[in-house]
Queue: 3 jobs
Job 1
Amino acid sequence: MSVADAPEGQARLAAFLKGLQQWGWTEGRNVRIDIRWGGGDAERTRKNVPELLALGPDVFLASGDHPVVELQHATRTAPIVFTMVGDPVGAGIVESLARPGGDTTGFTLFEFSVGTKWLELLKEIAPGMKRAAVIREAGTANGTGFFAAVQAVAPALGVELTPVGVRDGGEIERGINAFARSAEGGLIVTGSAQTAVHRDLIVALAARHMLPAVYFGRFMATGGGLICYGPDFLDEHRRAAGYVDRILRGERPANLPVQTPTKYELVINLKTARALGLDVPATLLAAPTR
């Protein structure tokens, strides 16, 4: 299951399959893989879960908070390896990162401290910005955690924050349109299934209102967004293959600690920067990823 049945979702699947091959598992030879795409649609995900359970899998790979929670509600015995979950402890998916407990473990999407980096980058590329709309999924551990991280550094950077929800496209459009009525603004687009699903709308609104924006994933910068700073999602899925291998060989998820990202990417869309009339600092152009 993936947050989006889109090219980036296919790329993550390919990275996972390549990782499995490196551990000696080849589809059709010694492993069978059944795939369902959620596309950020909660109802579709709920329908996918019983279909997959009926196949009797030895392990699940689930991407995003909602698919993991649905699987946990449906089974307490099938091992689950997750990817792209923001706060698995806050969401009640695992007991702790070091000792997940139960039959679920995996790889977190972010450390919330990345929120401070987003605001710092946005201020560096658009130093005149004094207001920032934080596009986040309200009522979730991700939405709360990211907003708190940005809020912690906003006063020192002289930036006033405005939260904008992402329940649907209408809420996003109303929120950004209202925010853009005042000058000196920018956008911080935090990681969630809904911001991924509505990425084209968000990028288009940022361009329409000439708002510099920082995003959580490479695919949003390559899709026209100004700048992104976030984990290497392909690397996370390659690493997830290692956990699936260990479970297939008999290890218990409870004994496999939840891992945080190890590689981050900084991507700047120079065409978008020119369209916004921004000069990208040389320090950003030379910044290494980690």
Job 2
Amino acid sequence: MKHVEELLNIPQHLKSLHRREVNLLWYGPSRLFGIRQAQDNKNSGFIGVIRIAMREHDAVKHGLMTDLTLEDEAHEELAKELIAHAEEELKKHGATKIDAVVLDGDKRTHPFQESGYWPQRKTVVIEWDLGRLPASAPLDGIAYEETDAPPAEEAADFILSSYQPYWRWWKNDLSDRPWERIDYPAAEPSIAEKENLAKNREKVIAMLRAFNKEVPQRMILARKGGEIIGLCDAKLTHDEQFDWGVLMKRDHPGAGFGTSLLIPMLQWLKDHGRKTAEITTTSGMDDFDPTVYLYVQSCGGAIRGEFINLVKRKL
């Protein structure tokens, strides 16, 4: 007989196996649950844990599962029991959708997929040592502007229309379905997708109007013929230092353009006392998004972790 109990901390003997997974969205305080097996009326130690949290301030109540750790990775059935218990706890708090975050390559997607979750996207955490920044120079024919008060509506329209091959929350519709196509330009959106795009536009505008109000922030805008063709932002926070990172038009001016946007923002962070900077970016399930290559190969970033995000709806 197995018992699932709420814990305050990860048991010591599981800590050496534990690999902290990132929290990709905006969630409230987390809770930890452990599973242990009773033998001869005596409880043995915990043999697995999972962490859950609820997303706050959202019309759709999202749940999160992360940090799944097992004493024996072969015990997939135990993992499924932990997932089922965590799911019931999240449902009690009104979750209608659950994101499960697991480390890529650990085979931890298997029990989630067996429990009805499907892989939605891959995310990559990248870190820069700001003491070792590569050189960068502005490109000819492009006007660059650094600001702490970006034009909210103009910048929002660029952000929403910027070319990104993979999932971005400000473009995503409400169905959370797997990608059917990633062509550019994309197919004509449905009425529901247009409505959701309008809602996301208001969210982005609100973020831009609050820019630099709560924490120090900076943005570099690149223009050609007066039109925004690229941007990058940075902020002085303790976790990630970017809301959007580098965004460019599909037909951007070519080699060195992304670097000319990112390096000044990394330098701004360095000038304000930061030693390192970090970003979490979305990528494909079987290939990296082009921004990953920009961040790593052109701008000296190091990949700190790769994660798979799985989704379950209609709980």
Job 3
Amino acid sequence: MKVRTSITLSKDLVEKIDSLAASYGNRSALIEKAVRDLIAAREKMDRDQNDLEVIIKQADTLNSEAMNVLSYQVDL
């Protein structure tokens, strides 16, 4: 379901959007794709940040386990 909305953009941005719009069907389709892509990128950044925080919290345990595994493979 589509919802009609109104936004205000700078003239130069609208000109750039219009120059690309035909590749996406129309101006609305281009803007919708751009916003969806931006949201997806932001969500991925948030997931990556959460993953990094978990790894950092568990770093000592993970490093200890890695050293333990390596001790079976090579002399340390």
